[in-house]
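[#protein-structures] MJ: dropping Chloride channel protein here for a structure pass
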Amino acid sequence: MVYLVLNHTLSLTLSLFSVLLPVPPSQELTMTGMNGNGPGNLVDPLEDPVPGLGTYEDFNTIDWVREKSKDRDRHREITNKSRQSTVALLHSVSDAFSGWLLMLLVGLMSGALAGGIDIAAHWLTDMKDGVCLIGFWFNHEHCCWTSNETTFQERDRCPQWQSWAELITGTSEGAFAYIVNYVMYIFWALLFSFLAVILVRAFAPYACGSGIPEIKTILSGFIIRGYLGKWTLIIKTITLVLAVSSGLSLGKEGPLVHVACCCANILCHLFTKYRKNEAKRREVLSAAAAVGVSVAFGAPIGGVLFSLEEVSYYFPLKTLWRSFFAALVAAFTLRSINPFGNSRLVLFYVEFHAPWHLVELGPFILLGIFGGLWGALFIRANIAWCRRRKSTRLGHYPVIEVLVVAALTAVIAYPNSYTRMSGAELISELFNDCSLLDSSQLCGYKQVKTGVGNSLADRPAGPGLYTALWQLALALIFKMMITVITFGMKVGADEFPSGLFIPSMAVGAIAGRLLGVGMEQLAYYNHDWFIFKGWCSPGADCITPGLYAMVGAAACLGGVTRMTVSLVVHHVRADWRLEYIVPLMAATMTSKWVADAFGREGIYEAHIRLNGYPFLEPKEEFEHSSLAVDVMRPRRSDPALAVLTQEGMTVGEVEVRIQKSTHYSGFPVVVSQESQRLVGFVLRRDLLISIDNARKRQEGVVSASQVVFTEHAPAQAAEAPPPLRLRGIMDLSPFTVTDHTPMDITVDIFRKLGLRQCLVTHNGRLLGIITKKDILKHMAQIANRDPDSILFN
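AK: finished. structure tokens for Chloride channel protein:
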């Protein structure tokens, strides 16, 4: 300690004399190099921090161990200082409170943006059908709220709202009016799609897709500069509204996770401990992922479980509480905005009145099997389509591709009322439990009889219901096909924001409603069968088709994403009755088991692998019996591993070594080339920054200056240039394994500690290095995949 004080005092004195009494260069060199053994004014990164040290280049993986160590040192320093003065104590309190304040801001900002997106998307979606005469900014529902001329049978028609055919031709009846509405629907769909793709390509290419595969990769420690930046947030928010309003088979729920993470990343720059520490920032991003799902589904608990189950790589206990707090704040913010006008957080809130019976577990499990088969089929078809786009000229014209898909979707969707409506409205319609006041086609039954309360007893299907069932069957086929193409548009060309939650839920909800109506009619006409005896008597409300739709939605989304617990919580939130947990869990688990039989990857993991991101899947088991020596580099046919020695190398030699090994992100430091005894590990970026800074700030550092990684500089001639001490940037405790360490243990070390690289030794001598990319390539080879598909370091 005394040495440090004297050293800083001497440095400050010399600096003052150099300012007050300019010294000739020759004398200045003598002053900086005096005493031969230990220069008095050497720049040591440990004692005099250099800007840029400890940061990471784009498309690189962070060092979790180093980042956590930096945060512990920072916290220890603040704690020690807090005992010395009141100001330091207040600073310690504010540092501890800053995490909760940040969560509050993330929740408020994300909830406000989600409310604005919901309102704008609803308005633009209705604009494809017509316009409100009393204010073009009103959507259809708000426009007719104050109307006194709305009838029960045609509750969506009012004089204040006019279709485009009424505005242009003066009538809403006839073939010409239908054609005018048809053309205007296609026109608005193409316009919204064109604006979305142009904005993404011109201002923020990272605003494409759902963002969840990239968020998962970032949370695992990967750096993608700009992916969570302010331009991405602005363009994603705008184009998400346009994309959803265009009528394409996509949703906004997945992209809302990206939006919330952008908010969190931007707000992190207001707090030093999150701005300067990548590991701490990823704790905030994990909480932001929970916020995104909370505002998407109105389920704060489900959002926290989603972040824990699906996207987070490191999720400590304090992040759990902060995630829940931020998700609650976001949900309350969205509730105060009330974007749907129903005092609910989501559009498809339902209430079921009839309980389910044990016999219905069979159909629920069938829905789970359907969801698993659909999930496996969708993943394979979508990945095959994406690979075809990347390998052919199909993906070279993204604007034309989006317009063609949008036009095709609009042309096919318009004649069918169930494909014309938005995905959220369709799910709400399918979840609906028919009541006495319902005028929907799905409630077109004969011989209506009053059941319990406001619900209806089981009754025979009427012509309206049969028409609706045919339309739903066609909508199911259309949704299954078009979703594969639509979700694939984001890969390769970076052009369009899209989410998968709503389309997958819509497919399952349609299948569930069809099965539910079938079960209802079966019970009505065969109530004397043994499976219905005792619980389904004539005139009773036995089967709830809306419940089947909800179970089917959960099954299909689970088959695609492989979520389980968080998915059940999302859907229980739709009704808030715990008695439906068993059907939902049965269908969801069945869906996961069936889908896993065809491949354990969910859609997001498949897209991570397709894009070549260095993501080490925590759920994937490593079952091969290879050793560390089989995976490490260099191999027997490769050149020797590039290393640095702790003494004896000059600045010029180090620079040449760095330039020749441009693909290395760091270098082991050894005692000598002969002994190969390991001393530490130094990052390439830190070396470059330190050498460049020393040339600017330390007089006399030239290419002939020695680079030393030892604690004390070696003795040298008086006329020799001063050495450059870089011990402060070296990791003195790099993780090492022996050459006979099993790879399953090595993989677990990489997963649980978040390592970038691990050095391989034999009896203390350095043999090689294993990086995360080496492990991913090795796992790809074992799985008979192309190891060169891992694109990034």
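MJ: nice. Residues 1-26+33-41+85-337 form a domain with the Clc chloride channel fold (CATH 1.10.3080.10).
AK: one more thing. The chain has 29 helices and eleven strands.
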